[in-house]
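User: Need the bound-state model for coenzyme A:
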Amino acid sequence: MMSANGTCRECKRCVSLLLPPPLQGSIGLRLGTLAGKICEMIIRQASPDDALRIATIHVEAWRVAYRGIVPDEYLRSLSVERRHLGWRQILEVAEESIWVAEDGERALGWISASRSRDVDAAQSTGEIWAIYVDPVCWGKGVGRALFAAAEQDLRRGGFTEATLWVLKDNERALRFYTSIGLVHDPCGDRVEHVGGKALVEVRLRKQLVQ
Ligand SMILES: CC(C)(COP(=O)(O)OP(=O)(O)OC[C@H]1O[C@@H](n2cnc3c(N)ncnc32)[C@H](O)[C@@H]1OP(=O)(O)O)[C@@H](O)C(=O)NCCC(=O)NCCS
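Assistant: Bound-state model below.
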């Protein structure tokens, strides 16, 4: 149940979403098409009870999105059980904001955001730490809705821009980020080693309009 300002009267944890076009006009929840059905989606803060679903989405999205980028052996070795434990601990003391999108039955994706962890970042720079959507829901607007919630959260925290790191070969994510207004930050790339393979990451940036 949403109040006029979009805050959930019951749990105080749902946020109003002033979504950017083409999703504008909806507050708190919006209609979307999932698996051929119309359903409602809300964005709310994650709780420790979400740990298993967050871990499952995390592992499944990694396995699909990073196939051919991250070594297969590493992707096979990912464990929902291990990530579940890790996520439970994170969610109990989370210093970052973690939001989940759900359709009333289960979480469809999640995003975490907070201050930037980059050493060259200004105080006013926030960061999208991670965003993962259940692969069966890709292309249905879940990522956009999550990103809009995280942007709103960062703005409320006083941040005037957001950055994030993405694998240079993650074409789908790069297309998604470009479509929602992020631009390449020519600060130089960085290299991360995953499963023994060197992977190039690029930083993207977006001004947060107040
Ligand atoms: C990247 C990611 C978060 C995007 O999430 P998503 O839910 O698929 O994103 P959206 O549906 O909001 O938008 C993606 C596409 O769907 C389109 N779309 C948006 N709303 C839509 C709707 N209601 N119906 C159909 N398509 C829609 C967008 O225009 C976009 O199209 P394009 O990619 O062809 O340009 C998701 O693919 C993912 O979890 N990837 C794996 C993890 C990952 O790479 N994370 C980023 C790490 S840095």
